[in-house]
Amino acid sequence: ARAEIGVTGLAVMGSNLARNFASKGFVTAVHNRTQARTDALIAEHGGDGDFVPSTSAEEFVASLVKPRRIVIMVKAGGPTDAVIDELAPLLEDGDILIDGGNAKFQDTRRREAALREQGIHFVGCGISGGEEGALLGPSIMPGGSKESYDSLGPMLEKISAHVDGEPCCTHIGTDGAGHFVKMVHNGIEYADMQLIAEAYDLLRRGAGLTPAELADVFAEWNRGDLDSFLIEITAEVLKQVDAETGQPFIDVVVDAAGMKGTGTWTVQNALDLGVPVSGIAEAVFARGLSSLAEQRAASKDLPGPAAAGSVDDRDAFVEDVRLALYASKIVAYAQGLDEIIAGAEEFGWDIDLGAVARIWRGGCIIRAKFLNRITEAYDSAAQQPASLLLAPYFTDAIAGTQDAWRRTVVFAATNGIPAPGFSTALAYYDGLRSERLPAALIQGQRDFFGAHTYRRVDRDGSFHTLWSGDRSEVATD
Ligand code: NDP
């Protein structure tokens, strides 16, 4: 046995990850259920590094030095369980099984607990960056035991993306923490994409910019606060011209957004944890609405605003939309980080938010320059801010967007252009800063119909008003 790391599941992600390990000088064992994939990898890239191919799980396990380190890179769900069931009996105390797929963190917790009984370390490992990231350096979010990270971490750090010399990989927390954080990463990605799409829509429909002009606008934005991978690729997509029709590429694509589920999971878990991730939720819902082909077709004649407002100063409008996007994006990150804090508390993880922001600076889909500022917000603070919005840098940043943000939301509403991401972010912001919320009225209603009781502003305890009696108040505890 001489392989230092093994990868099983050699579809696009697994083979690229294996090539990444091999390119960093690790002897890499490779295996796939269907032999043809292993053969193809060796035929095409066998010369790029030291690979040890196997034809069976037994041979694969035997090719690894102990403690064995095996990355599973197969379809998430049942297939991952099938591979674990096949490998686990072949492993020994101290071996490390790593699941690099997009697993539900609850599945990771279950698998980790079961394998721990057998003395096997199970590391649920979030990997972001798509195919290219897997090959050239992804952002890696490993969970599992601290002990397993001691042996595995340095290898993962070596194959991860690097920013300012620092690896985009850190031990996130025990059991399912890595997959939880990867899930929230994807939720933030949904929100970010939705916000960019809204900016595009407002500028195109509202101010009449062409896709080619918009490509230039996004390329310009990518040089400032919004500097990020998603803004960069937005400019590329908008620049693209369809070879067949000569139309802008964007105009020949069906406007129904697909999804694979991680955004939905982020929202489902936020609901369970009671965290208002409204920006992420709106992003998931907006994709859902876009796919309602029948309802959308039937709704074309629903009335809209009578007179659309026009844009007099195009440059000023572009700047307003940029600022609205920036503010809404900060809110989406604040909400996502709140979900991580709530998850950590619920599941007993010790998660360093500054480190999470640090490893998202490179390799992953939401990589962005402003993540440096998030890291600083958590690293430099003597006390963690109660919300990202309360970290001084971001409080200032949002203060600078105020008027533009509000004008943009008003413009969208007045002109009948949907901007659910911008609007919900602003409503969240105003909700947080309101000294009094109408929740008091909701408490009154709840007490009225269900005797759910309420608390008073002027003394402790819970109270109920005898609504169907003489409407006097009684203390209930
Ligand atoms: P797929 O999700 O398409 O999975 C294909 C691989 O799974 C093949 O190697 C296949 O083997 C194997 N497989 C499927 N069922 C079984 C089974 N029952 N037993 C053994 N092996 C099985 O591949 P991807 O490379 O796209 O993704 C791999 C994982 O990485 C997924 O969990 C995905 O969610 C995650 N991921 C993907 C990203 C991406 O950008 N694509 C980004 C980040 C994570 P066979 O060849 O025999 O069919």
From TrEMBL:
<dbReference type="InterPro" id="IPR006183">
    <property type="entry name" value="Pgluconate_DH"/>
</dbReference>
<feature type="binding site">
    <location>
        <position position="102"/>
    </location>
    <ligand>
        <name>NADP(+)</name>
    </ligand>
</feature>
<dbReference type="Pfam" id="PF03446">
    <property type="entry name" value="NAD_binding_2"/>
</dbReference>
<dbReference type="InterPro" id="IPR036291">
    <property type="entry name" value="NAD(P)-bd_dom_sf"/>
</dbReference>
<keyword id="KW-0311">Gluconate utilization</keyword>
<feature type="active site" description="Proton donor">
    <location>
        <position position="189"/>
    </location>
</feature>
<feature type="binding site" description="in other chain">
    <location>
        <position position="190"/>
    </location>
    <ligand>
        <name>substrate</name>
    </ligand>
</feature>
<dbReference type="InterPro" id="IPR008927">
    <property type="entry name" value="6-PGluconate_DH-like_C_sf"/>
</dbReference>
<feature type="binding site">
    <location>
        <begin position="74"/>
        <end position="76"/>
    </location>
    <ligand>
        <name>NADP(+)</name>
    </ligand>
</feature>
<feature type="active site" description="Proton acceptor">
    <location>
        <position position="182"/>
    </location>
</feature>
<dbReference type="InterPro" id="IPR006114">
    <property type="entry name" value="6PGDH_C"/>
</dbReference>
<feature type="binding site">
    <location>
        <position position="452"/>
    </location>
    <ligand>
        <name>substrate</name>
    </ligand>
</feature>
<comment type="function">
    <text>Catalyzes the oxidative decarboxylation of 6-phosphogluconate to ribulose 5-phosphate and CO(2), with concomitant reduction of NADP to NADPH.</text>
</comment>
<dbReference type="GO" id="GO:0006098">
    <property type="term" value="P:pentose-phosphate shunt"/>
</dbReference>
<keyword id="KW-0560">Oxidoreductase</keyword>
<protein>
    <recommendedName>
        <fullName>6-phosphogluconate dehydrogenase, decarboxylating</fullName>
        <ecNumber>1.1.1.44</ecNumber>
    </recommendedName>
</protein>
<keyword id="KW-0521">NADP</keyword>
<feature type="binding site">
    <location>
        <position position="446"/>
    </location>
    <ligand>
        <name>substrate</name>
    </ligand>
</feature>
<feature type="binding site" description="in other chain">
    <location>
        <position position="102"/>
    </location>
    <ligand>
        <name>substrate</name>
    </ligand>
</feature>
<feature type="domain" description="6-phosphogluconate dehydrogenase C-terminal">
    <location>
        <begin position="178"/>
        <end position="468"/>
    </location>
</feature>
<feature type="binding site">
    <location>
        <begin position="32"/>
        <end position="34"/>
    </location>
    <ligand>
        <name>NADP(+)</name>
    </ligand>
</feature>
<comment type="similarity">
    <text>Belongs to the 6-phosphogluconate dehydrogenase family.</text>
</comment>
<keyword id="KW-0570">Pentose shunt</keyword>
<comment type="subunit">
    <text>Homodimer.</text>
</comment>
<dbReference type="GO" id="GO:0019521">
    <property type="term" value="P:D-gluconate metabolic process"/>
</dbReference>
<comment type="pathway">
    <text>Carbohydrate degradation; pentose phosphate pathway; D-ribulose 5-phosphate from D-glucose 6-phosphate (oxidative stage): step 3/3.</text>
</comment>
<dbReference type="InterPro" id="IPR006115">
    <property type="entry name" value="6PGDH_NADP-bd"/>
</dbReference>
<dbReference type="Pfam" id="PF00393">
    <property type="entry name" value="6PGD"/>
</dbReference>
<dbReference type="GO" id="GO:0050661">
    <property type="term" value="F:NADP binding"/>
</dbReference>
<dbReference type="GO" id="GO:0004616">
    <property type="term" value="F:phosphogluconate dehydrogenase (decarboxylating) activity"/>
</dbReference>
<feature type="binding site">
    <location>
        <begin position="9"/>
        <end position="14"/>
    </location>
    <ligand>
        <name>NADP(+)</name>
    </ligand>
</feature>
<feature type="binding site" description="in other chain">
    <location>
        <position position="287"/>
    </location>
    <ligand>
        <name>substrate</name>
    </ligand>
</feature>
<dbReference type="InterPro" id="IPR006113">
    <property type="entry name" value="6PGDH_Gnd/GntZ"/>
</dbReference>
<feature type="binding site" description="in other chain">
    <location>
        <position position="260"/>
    </location>
    <ligand>
        <name>substrate</name>
    </ligand>
</feature>
<dbReference type="InterPro" id="IPR013328">
    <property type="entry name" value="6PGD_dom2"/>
</dbReference>
<feature type="binding site" description="in other chain">
    <location>
        <begin position="128"/>
        <end position="130"/>
    </location>
    <ligand>
        <name>substrate</name>
    </ligand>
</feature>
<feature type="binding site" description="in other chain">
    <location>
        <begin position="185"/>
        <end position="186"/>
    </location>
    <ligand>
        <name>substrate</name>
    </ligand>
</feature>
